[in-house]
Design goal:
By secondary structure, the chain is mainly alpha-helical. It is built from eight helices and no strands. Helix 1 runs antiparallel to helix 4, helix 5 packs across helix 6 and helix 6 runs parallel beside helix 8. The longest helix is centred in the first third of the chain and has 28 residues. It is globular, with a radius of gyration of 20 Å. The N terminus and C terminus are likely disordered.
Length: about 210
């Protein structure tokens, strides 16, 4: 039931509690989708990766940008991405659905585009680019907002999960796509800059003499 715009249940969807519930639901469904896709993929001996994985610098690879984060190398690959996706995605969702979708879009396409441009000759799959995108978004947005709570949260996240940032560097692990991580992080920074709060200049009130 939705009440009139003057208040009531129509406003509850904008409360922190409603956003938290929405974030858990959306992230939970996304993780379930990733595991479901992996089960089907594993049943076909991961042949779907050759169709939907990202192939750099190929015409078909541009379409792969839309699908490659949904597929993974194995079940362990999905598990390793699931927890940070839930944590960082949930924190981003607390800022609202529009903010969340913007961060997802920029992280997703930033990750895919950089892999397509400078990725290796293999096929890239996995949602870790989204993890890096969410992480970078939270860090940058915390400083843009100039909010002590958000800045403190960003510092805690960095100290707790900062080790994953090494995944953006070339040569850290030969089987890890640092291009996907770096592209996702750049996308997250771009999203935070796009959504940067704009200061409203204080108008000087003219006084009559």
């Amino acid at each position: 039931m939705v009440l009139d715009a003057s208040g009531g249940q129509a406003q509850t969807r904008h409360t922190p509690a409603a956003r938290a519930q929405g974030g858990l639901l959306v992230l939970g469904l996304f993780i379930v989708l990733l595991f479901a896709i992996e089960l089907v993929n594993a049943a076909t001996f991961h042949s779907l990766n050759r169709t939907f994985g990202l192939r750099p610098r190929s015409a078909d690879g541009l379409l792969d940008i839309l699908t490659f984060p949904l597929f993974h190398a194995n079940l362990g690959h999905v598990v390793s991405n699931a927890l940070p996706l839930i944590i960082f995605g949930f924190l981003v969702f607390l800022s609202g659905l529009r903010v969340f979708l913007t961060a997802v879009a920029f992280s997703w396409f930033g990750s895919g585009l950089l892999v397509w441009l400078i990725g290796g000759w293999g096929i890239t799959v996995g949602a870790s680019g989204l993890v890096f995108g969410f992480f970078a978004f939270l860090l940058v947005r915390g400083f843009f907002n100039r909010n002590w709570w958000q800045i403190a949260l960003s510092v805690v996240l960095f100290l707790t999960y900062g080790g994953i940032l090494f995944g953006v560097l070339p040569g850290v692990a030969g089987f890890v796509s640092w291009q996907a991580h770096l592209g996702g992080a750049l996308g997250g920074v771009a999203a935070a800059m796009l959504l940067k709060p704009r200061r409203v200049p204080q108008q000087r009130q003219a006084t009559e003499r």
